[in-house]
Specification:
mainly alpha; Arc Repressor Mutant, subunit A
Amino acid sequence: MKTIQLICKQLTAKEIAGTSRLGNRSVEDYKRNIKEKNGARNMVGIAMYALANDLVKMSELDLF
């Protein structure tokens, strides 16, 4: 699963690192790069971008 999808599932950087072969610092770097490339100001912006561009579907998200 892509990092952006895991972010949208509300996983922390530590949790994402645990489910992938990435280190915690690498995940934080990915999050920062995703925000910069997409003009997002925070994690909500990343989720909005992912939804708008069909990178994730509402049915895949753990909303509450």
